[in-house]
Amino acid sequence: MSQEKAFIKDESLHNARRKFLKQSSALTALALAPPSLIKAADGNLDEKASALFEKQSLKIEVNGIQHELSVEPRVTLLDLLREQLHLTGSKKGCDYGQCGACTVHVNGKRVLSCLSLAIMQDGKKIRTIEGLADGDNLHPMQQAFIKHDGFQCGYCTPGQIMSAIACVNEGHANNEDDIRQNMSGNICRCGAYPNIVDAIMEVKQKGGPL
Fold this sequence. Notes:
Blueprint: H1 3-32, H2 35-41, H3 47-51, E1 56-62, E2 65-71, H4 77-84, E3 103-106, E4 109-112, E5 125-127, H5 140-147, H6 157-169, H7 176-182, H8 193-206
Parallel strand pairs: 1-5
Antiparallel strand pairs: 1-2, 3-4, 3-5
Helix pairs in contact: 5-8, 6-8
C-alpha cells in the first residue's frame, strides 16, 4: 500500500472515530440535560438531535404493579412517576439531588429519583410512598412519624420516610448519631429532625425488615 493510500485510510478511520465520539458525547449531554433546558432549546434542535430523543420501551414494576411504557431517554424517574404514572407523593424539591424529597426505593435501595434516568430502571422494582400503606393500615414508619410529629409542612416527609425505612433496613439505625449521619441527605426546612430521629429509633427497636 502506498504512503498516500495509507494516509487516506488512517485519516478516514480517524474521522470515523471522531464522529462516533462526537455523537456519543452529544447523546450523553442531551440525555443528562434537565428537561426544562431541552424544552427551551427545542426550537434550535435539528432533526438529527431530535432523533436522539425518540421514545424507548420500558418495563418496570411500581408498587407491585407492572407497567409497559414509552419514555424519552432524558426523562428522569421522578418525572416518570409524577407525570406519566401520576404518583405525586415523591416531591420535586431541588431537582439537583440535594434535598432528598424525591427519594424512592429501587430494588430495595434508596435512590434520588430526580437524578436517575427512567430508562435505566428497565426490569426493576420501584417502591414509592404510595406503596407503603396496606389499604387503611399505615406502614410502621408512617405511624411512627405521626406519633412523634416527624413532619410539619409535610413537603419533605415522603422522602424522609422512604430514607428512614432504608436507613433501618441497611442497618444504619443503631443509635441517634448513626441515624443523623445516614439521614443527612434529607433536608427538613421546618427543622423536625429530633422528632424524625425519635420515630426511626422506635421503629428500629421493634425490629424486623420494613
